Amino acid sequence: LWIIPNQPQTWSTTLSRTIQLSRLLKNRGLCVQRERGERGFTLKNKGKMRNTFQRRRNLADASSRVLSPTRVATDQLSVKAHTSTGILSKTTSTTVQKRVAHTPTMKRPVIPAEFGAKVPTNVRQRYLNIFIDECLKFCSSEQQAFQMALEEEKVVYDRSSSKNIYLNVAVNTLKKLRKSPAVSVNRKSQSHEGVLGGRLAATTSYTINRSGKQQDVDPKGAILYNKQKKYAMTEEQLQEHGYPRPHPEMSGQAVVHNLPEKKNNDPFSKICCRCGAEYKINANGSCVRKEECSHHWGRLRRNRVPGGWETLYSCCSGAVGSPGCEVCKQHVQDGRKESLDGFVKTFSKPLPVDGNGGVYALDCEMCYTKQGLELTRVTVINSDLKVIYDTFVKPGSKVVDYNTRFSGVTQDDLENTTITLRDVQAVLLSMFSAESILIGHSLESDLFALKLIHSMVVDTAIVFPHRLGLPYKRALRNLMADYLKRIIQDNVGGHDSSEDARACMELMIWKIKEDAKVKR
Ligand SMILES: [Zn+2]
Ligand SMILES: [Zn+2]
User: Fold this and answer.
1) What is the pLDDT of residues 291-343, one digit of tens each?
2) How many CB atoms lie within 10 A of CB 501?
3) Hey, is 11 helix, strand or coil?
4) Total-model pTM
5) Are 131 and 181 in contact (CB under 8 A)?
6) Rounded CA gap, 370 and 398, in Å?
């Protein structure tokens, strides 16, 4: 299993090794789970994994992650949900080279399954395995390594009230284990606050430290605001990239420039945005016929093959035009650009005396309803990477598909939610002014879901463009892997809006620090 030491490593080799390692670990975790005959795991197609346990996150977990709009930020934990450096993503297309696996002589310990536990067992098992691998590097026996890893994992679990916090704490523990074996061995006497990192870790963990020596100071306040402002989109860019813009005459109405011309004028005929099929709806928006939607949920990817390139779906490596690898109950539409009313616009407010208009990162999750894509969760992160607003949102129309694979939001999450889009808009209008900088990845998508018109936008998909130019855009997880050397969106339960929003903020803080280095 182990990685050959003492070899000059470039980041890409390190990454691919880490990925290979994680894949091995993950597979091992799966094997362990399967051996134990747990229900809930189905391995459907290559590389496709689901865990129904994870989907049934209990409500206690869900509510602990969500702030009500009236309780903003005061007691929010600084949850850093950057998931595990070095865990394979479900969409990573890196090829795995054959390598000889390290065969442990002892059977690895297994996390006992607790149904409805605050952290899914497979996540715990995955981290236990990673901890074991780290401990094996410096422990004198497997027995000792297993014991230490079990203790570490238990501390992480006991400390965590939710999966997000668990991931955060686990990553910090892992860093600690990797950093200094000697410290870890002698750590019995050290407080676990030290392990968890506390304030120091929260401020330094996103500081990229290439040389391993210097500690950068993160720009704050008005300095940060003014530096980010240079990346704000112009009105022309906002229009070019299809952001919602204010209607010149009607307040509450948005206009979109550069919309592709609509070919289909029949209001009762829709094109499914997943599989491309045409389907009929009735007057109240429901599908006329029960037709399954067979589609590929992954993206098309170009892969290098001997003699050229081939384009395959990232979900199942299926060819273009191959039958879908996922079947959902019915077809769905985006629909967000079809009703451009109900929009609100941020108000201009005088800048505070220090000149800091505020810098925030924002991300939304959506589900499919009869109307199309509707908001189900929104997260706002401030420039200290703290969650200042995070809530589930009840969609206005009947849900057709929870879209959990992408949103991470489940039916359970929305069951007891009473917050509506209108409530969210009210909170955001008081939180932001027209001068506030909102950072996001393809933020236009979020602004349509929020029905929010805002002009001071920093879009990480534009700041970090694809080398082929538009319409290609780089995925947020690839940006994070390339620039911050971190793997995000590794969660089998779907994306996490707080993770994505934080990633955008971190990327932009990284960017202005890089700018400063160049100037020096
Ligand atoms: Zn597929
Ligand atoms: Zn469809």
Assistant:
1) 889 999 888 887 788 888 888 888 888 888 888 898 988 899 888 888 899 99
2) 28
3) helix
4) 0.59
5) no
6) 6
The predicted structure's pLDDT at residue 180:
54
Strand-pair category, 49-51 with 308-313: unpaired
Give me ligand 1 centre to Cα 369, in Å.
23
Question: What does the pLDDT look like over 223-257, one tens digit per residue?
Answer: 999 999 999 999 999 999 999 999 999 989 999 99
Does position 200 have pLDDT exceeding 80, yes or no?
Answer: no
The dihedral sign for the CA sequence 346, 348, 350, 356: positive
Flag the least confident range among 68-72, 117-121, 287-291. 68-72
Residue 263: burial class (beta carbons within 10 Å; 0-12, 13-18, 19+): exposed
- Rounded Cα distance, 79 and 128, in Å: 21
Nearest to 492 by CA among 5, 28, 41: 41
The answer to whether the CB of 434 falls within 8 A of the CB of 346 is: yes
Residue 252: beta bridge partners? none
> Based on the number of CB atoms within 10 Å of its own CB, is 259 exposed (0-12), middle (13-18) or buried (19 or more)?
exposed
Nearest ligand for residue 401 CA: 2
Cβ < 5 A residues, ion ligand 2: 272, 274-275, 277, 293, 331
Q: Detail the DSSP E strand segments found in 41-145.
A: 41-43, 49-51
Which ligand sits closest to the CA of 319? 1
Pick from 210-214, 357-361, 455-459: least confident: 210-214
Q: How confident is the model over 488-516, as pLDDT tens digits?
A: 877 666 678 888 999 999 999 999 988 88
Nearest Cα neighbor of 102 from 35, 213, 21, 170 is 21
Please list all protein residues whose beta carbon sits less than 5 angstroms from ligand 1, which is an ion.
Answer: 296, 313, 315-316, 318, 325
- Determine whether 208 is exposed, middle or buried from the number of CB atoms within 10 Å of its CB (0-12, 13-18, 19+): middle
Tokens for 348? 């201009």
- CA–CA separation, 103 vs 323, rounded Å? 39
Expressed in angstroms and rounded, the spacing between residue 444 Cα and the centre of ligand 2 is: 24
Question: How close is the Cα of 406 to the center of ligand 1, in Å?
Answer: 14
Residue 76 and residue 29: Cα distance in Å, rounded?
32
CA-to-CA dists, residue 410 to 376, 420, 424, angstroms: 9, 17, 19
Spatial neighbors of 420 by CB under 8 A, at least 6 apart, are 393, 394, 396
* HEC letters along 449-492: HHCEECCCEEEHHHHCCCCCCCCCCCCHHHHHHHHCCCCCCCCC
The yes-or-no verdict on residue 75 having pLDDT over 90 is no
Full set of structural domains in the chain with CATH: 11-204 (no CATH), 221-249+343-519 (3.30.420.10), 269-328 (no CATH)
Interval between CA 41 and ligand 1 midpoint (Å) = 19
